[in-house]
Design goal:
With about 350 residues, this protein is of the alpha/beta class. The protein has helices spanning about 15-30, 45-55, 70-85, 95-105, 125-135, 145-155, 165-180, 185, 205, 210-225, 235, 255-260, 270-280, 295-300, 315-320, 335-350; strands at about 5-10, 35-40, 60-65, 85-90, 110-115, 140-145, 160-165, 195-200, 230, 245-250, 265-270, 285, 305. α11 links the parallel β9 and β10. α1 packs across α16 and α4 packs parallel to α5 (about 125-135).
């Protein structure tokens, strides 16, 4: 009798780190067949290829080259029709996540959502719409925090929840030693613990010329006393103008970025995942957003929400004099992939029995 087929849909950098531990554990158990489909959402080689080289993921079995959500949806429907999977696994809140969930639902295939239940309450964010719709289309909701569980319970999705922990932290822990051994800060003439790492990419910041200019100006001021390194997302690079004291680099491979992150004095970000990574690494994090879907990183972790107020970045030297030490949330322990795989097998074998 053929083994059940589980298909994982990825398309953007955050997906890879969340899916990899689950894929690896299901492969180790050997009870299901697996296929990896890449939608093509991130088609820059530095934003895609290097991640497959560094993570326990195979090269995608199917690469679609779909650069829009509409194309991804149509292509995924076709592929699901051909492969007839027993379960589709999606992760996070990017457009490929939504496309995978909608396509599977249209084909009558159950969906598992890794990192369910995150809510910012900000419906102007495409990611908020993506994760809410994906959760309501999913049969199995794998959560990483009590906040996420509470959000899903409030939306009457209680029976679908499985609290497994944070799979992205599994990836971090598995790569931490190798990342530290790289000593990536030395490549840029920096000293461990003596620089600020920046990552910004959200449209409401980087596509607003005024806000982006204010942000760069404030970081320039910080750079007078503390070096600032900024691996620039392709979206942000297009909108940068003028000279700066900041050390600008191309997007970095996962381990190289993690190496910089783990030894930074602080991280400035508008990314969701970075808020979680810094909490586990015990690195002060300053989030340049009005809200966060990850309040646990503020309640328990090292994260501070600055609002969408770039001028507050000038407070960094003062804030770093009194850092938040924080604590690591429950089940962010490097074993979430094992629990996720167990929940997936329970669903698949229950459904196929």
């Amino acid at each position: 009798m053929p083994r059940p087929l589980v298909v994982h849909v990825v398309g953007a950098r955050p997906n890879y780190m969340k899916v990899a531990p689950v894929y690896a554990e299901l492969e180790r158990l050997g009870n299901v067949e697996q296929r990896l489909i890449h939608t093509g959402q991130h088609y820059d080689a530095l934003m895609k290829d290097v991640f497959f080289a560094e993570l326990p993921l195979p090269r995608p079995h199917v690469e679609l080259g779909a650069h829009t959500t509409e194309d991804a949806l149509a292509d995924l429907e076709r592929v699901f029709g051909e492969q007839q999977p027993d379960l589709v696994v999606v992760a996070g809140d990017v457009n490929s996540t939504l496309a995978g969930a909608v396509a599977a639902s249209k084909c009558g295939i159950p969906v598992c959502h890794i990192e369910s239940g995150l809510r910012s309450g900000d419906w102007s964010m495409p990611e908020e719409r993506n994760r809410v719709i994906t959760d309501h289309l999913s049969t199995l909701l794998l959560t990483h925090s009590d906040d996420a569980d509470k959000s899903l319970i409030a939306e009457r999705l209680t029976d679908r929840i499985s609290f497994v922990g944070n799979t992205m932290i599994d990836t971090l822990r598995a790569n931490e030693d190798a990342a530290l051994a790289l000593e990536a800060w030395r490549e840029f003439g920096l000293e461990a613990g003596g620089y600020v790492l920046v990552t910004l990419h959200r449209p409401n910041l980087v596509d607003d010329a005024g806000l982006l200019a204010q942000t760069i100006a404030a970081l320039d001021d910080v750079a007078e006393s503390l070096p600032v390194i900024f691996p620039v997302h392709p979206r942000t690079r297009r909108n940068l103008d003028g000279s700066t004291r900041l050390l600008l680099t191309e997007p970095l491979p996962y381990r190289q970025f993690l190496s910089l992150e783990a030894q930074a004095a602080a991280v400035v970000t508008d990314s969701g995942g970075i808020q979680e990574e810094t909490t586990v690494l015990r690195i002060p994090c300053f989030t340049l957003r009005q809200n966060t879907e990850r309040p646990i990183t503020i309640e328990l972790g090292t994260n501070r929400l600055l609002g969408l107020e770039p001028e507050r970045l000038r407070e960094l030297p003062t804030l770093l004099a009194n850092p938040k030490h924080g604590q690591i949330p429950p089940l962010w322990d490097g074993r979430a992939g094992e629990r996720a795989a167990e929940a997936i097998e329970c669903l698949v074998f229950g459904a196929t029995a």
